[in-house]
Amino acid sequence: KGQVAIVTGASRGIGKEIAIKLAEQGMKLAVIGSSEDIHKSAVDIKGKGFADVLPIQADISNEAQVKEAVERTLQEYKQIDLLVNNAGVGFFKQVDKTTLEEWKKVFEVNVQGVFLGSKSVLPHMKERKSGTIITISSDVARYTIPNGSAYTATKYAVQGFSGSLAQEVREYGIRVGTINPGMVDTYFAESEQGLEEKKDWLKVEDIANAVIYMASAPKHMMIDEIVLHPFVQDYPI
Ligand code: NJP
């Protein structure tokens, strides 16, 4: 209670639900999104009875904007206990049909964004000798899928990044983990939420509950990774 979380990519989908569940736990929030929708999302969350929601419109792949977002959060709340690196994009195409711009974009948001978000909160967390960084990765970080080379590559990268960071910051009492979902019913990859064909997929609440479980682990316990997928999804691991 009274702790502070930053959730990236909270304009909709998984990130918005994570923010709501963290607020239910009594946390104060800074929510980040690159579009104006982040302001509407913050209004929705406040409408559920949670006052401390600071919307910040920032592109997670832009170093200056991410730095400013973290500074604004510290000005407002004086501390940051949890960073949830959730913002992500994806597209699914054959390699020879993928443009360099598409390749760069998915790496900028999914990998550079996780790097910049983490880098920006670390000096503060190191100073306090406390903090948690959770990244929403993907179950495709554990196997491969056709037409998903760029997206899959970003999630393998995030997995490597988080593992290394976890070892690096353990001496500061900072915990780092990933949550690796299978298919989740969101707006991901230009989709819509609530489509009939996605009725058996994971719900945003499932991922948000995993974040709560990981973030509230007792001090003596470290949860490195949570993998979850729809019961109906093939499990080629
Ligand atoms: O996607 P979606 P999800 N800077 O499209 C924001 C992973 N995942 O909730 O920028 C800052 O509904 C965007 O806001 P805005 C996935 O890889 C998903 O499913 O304002 N924010 C929106 O809030 C990703 O890491 C599935 O438009 C940026 C959010 O990101 C995470 O789950 C499966 C941004 C995207 O919401 C959340 O994705 C899986 C930027 N540059 C992993 N660009 C799945 N859905 O099936 C975008 O394994 N955002």
TrEMBL record:
Classification via Pfam families: adh_short
Name of the protein: NADP-dependent 3-hydroxy acid dehydrogenase YdfG
Keyword Nucleotidyltransferase assigned: no
GO molecular function, one term: oxidoreductase activity, acting on the CH-OH group of donors, NAD or NADP as acceptor
PROSITE patterns: ADH_SHORT
UniProt keyword annotations, A-Z: Oxidoreductase
UniProt similarity note: Belongs to the short-chain dehydrogenases/reductases (SDR) family.
